[in-house]
Each structure stands twice: as structure tokens, then as C-alpha cells.
Design a protein that fits this description.
The protein has nine helices and no strands. By secondary structure, it is an all-alpha fold. Helix 1 runs antiparallel to helix 9 and helix 2 packs across helix 7.
């Protein structure tokens, strides 16, 4: 009788290159970032009204007549993000749109270039609902953004801002040497110079922290690539096993008819 798929010849074979790669990717996947979640419903009418008041505090480029339609192309959403995180958003990347493709482009650009830096990735279903002006969709997404803004303002979340004009690290004098100003004046460094060095060193430490966050973000992006590669390998594994099963079945048929 022919062997079943589960008892085919491949489990007895030595590990293949695909098996080895799959093990590596599966181990790496344990460190991958969690997938985006659909924005939850807003709990109460009071929370909804607070959200509307929060949006009304920001001067937007277009009047708000119907919030679902007004925010469908992502431009006003980008303006709200820009209001709170001006270093993250380049508004020229977002143009008013009526076509579904341009709306999706705006939202995906926000996702990939901006929102990931504050720990938020809009779920594809939310993008679909918001761009089609589904009732209640933009409110749910705005509520998540509002929560992220509050977390940053309260120091609970550190976002990754672009690093601009990095100040070189201030050189320190060797032990026993006087600072340059002390050599000129014959006295210790002036309070102004010391204060300037302290500010520069403090700024440098902040820049180092931002660079570290940026590297961590790149690692997370690489983990996402690993996720995609892992899925492709799983499909390739499945195809190889199906092929092995077919070869085994054909070999048994050839043996049955004395052709092998």
C-alpha cells in the first residue's frame, strides 16, 4: 500500500538547507514586533466628545463639516500629527485626494514614515474603513493617536525624532592639563564656558539616545522582513513536501507495474 503524506520519505532525510534556514528565521521571529491591531471602539459618549474637543483645538487647513469624509484622505490626520510632532511630518508628502488609490497612499505613507516612530501602526482594515469614510472609523483611529500623544506628553513614551545638526562631542582635556580658556586667562574655565560645555554634552547624550532608538527601529523593520521571509519559506517547504509526496506516489506506481 502507498505511504500516507505524513509518513513520506522526507522526515528520515538529513536536514535540508530550507530546514536550517527555517529554524534560524523562527528563532529570530521571537524578537519581532507585534502586528498592528484594529483600533478599539470608543467606550463612551464622554470620551467621544473629549476627542472632538481635542481635534477642535487644532487649526486645520480645511473646515470640518463631516469628520468621516473630511479625514478620509489622511491629510487632516497628518496635520494633527504634525501639530504634536512637527519634526516627524513632511506635509508635502500628503495631497488632498478623491481617488481610493491616493487616499491609501497617504495613509500608508503616514504609517511607514511617521506613525511607527511613535509606536503606532494603523491596521490595514482601519485604513480601508477610514479611506472609505465608514462611520466611526476615523474616531477610533484618532483616539489611538490621542492616547499616544498623551503618553509622549506625560513621558510614558519616547518617540524617535529625526536627528538634525548633530553637535560634535566636546573634547575633554587630559588629566593634569588645563582647559584652553584656563591657559589663556591663567585661571580656571569661566562659568560661561563650563555651562556651554555642559549643555553641549547634555545635547550629545540626547542625540546618542535618539540614535539608539533609531537603530532599534531599524532592527524592528528588519524583523518585519524576517516575518515575510519566514512565510515564504513555509510556503516553499509545503511545496517541497507536496512534490516529495507526488514523487513517492509515482515511484510506487512504477514499482507496481514493474517499470522501476
Amino acid at each position: 500500500s502507498s505511504r500516507s503524506f505524513a509518513s513520506g520519505p522526507f522526515p528520515q532525510n538529513p536536514p535540508t538547507y530550507i530546514d536550517t534556514c527555517t529554524g534560524l528565521f523562527r528563532r529570530t521571529n521571537n524578537m519581532a514586533a507585534a502586528p498592528p491591531q484594529v483600533a478599539p471602539d470608543i467606550d463612551s459618549d464622554e470620551d467621544l466628545q473629549r476627542l472632538y474637543n481635542w481635534v477642535d483645538e487644532i487649526a486645520l487647513s480645511r473646515p470640518k463639516r463631516n469628520i468621516s469624509r473630511d479625514f478620509a484622505d489622511g491629510v487632516l490626520f497628518a496635520e494633527i500629527v504634525n501639530h504634536h510632532f512637527p519634526r516627524l511630518v513632511e506635509m508635502h508628502n500628503y495631497s488632498a485626494a478623491n481617488s481610493q488609490s491616493q487616499k491609501s497612499y497617504n495613509w500608508n505613507t503616514l504609517n511607514n514614515k511617521v506613525l511607527k516612530k511613535i509606536g503606532y501602526t494603523i491596521h490595514p482594515q482601519d485604513i480601508e474603513d477610514v479611506s472609505r469614510a465608514a462611520p466611526g472609523a476615523i474616531e477610533r483611529v484618532l483616539k489611538v493617536l490621542q492616547d499616544k500623544v498623551i503618553q509622549v506628553q506625560e513621558g510614558q513614551l519616547r518617540y524617535r525624532a529625526p536627528v538634525a545638526n548633530v553637535v560634535p562631542r566636546v573634547a575633554t582635556s587630559r588629566e593634569g592639563d588645563e582647559p584652553p580658556l584656563a591657559k589663556i586667562s591663567g585661571r580656571g574655565a569661566s562659568p560661561t564656558a563650563a555651562s556651554g560645555r555642559a549643555k553641549a554634552e547634555r545635547f550629545q547624550s540626547e542625540v546618542d539616545a535618539e540614535l539608539l532608538v533609531e537603530k532599534e527601529q531599524k532592527i524592528n523593520e528588519l524583523h518585519e522582513v524576517v516575518d515575510i521571509m519566514s512565510e515564504k519559506i513555509k510556503k516553499l517547504e509545503q511545496l517541497v513536501r507536496i512534490k516529495d509526496a507526488k514523487i513517492e506516489a509515482m515511484s510506487q506506481k512504477l514499482q507496481k507495474y514493474g517499470l522501476a
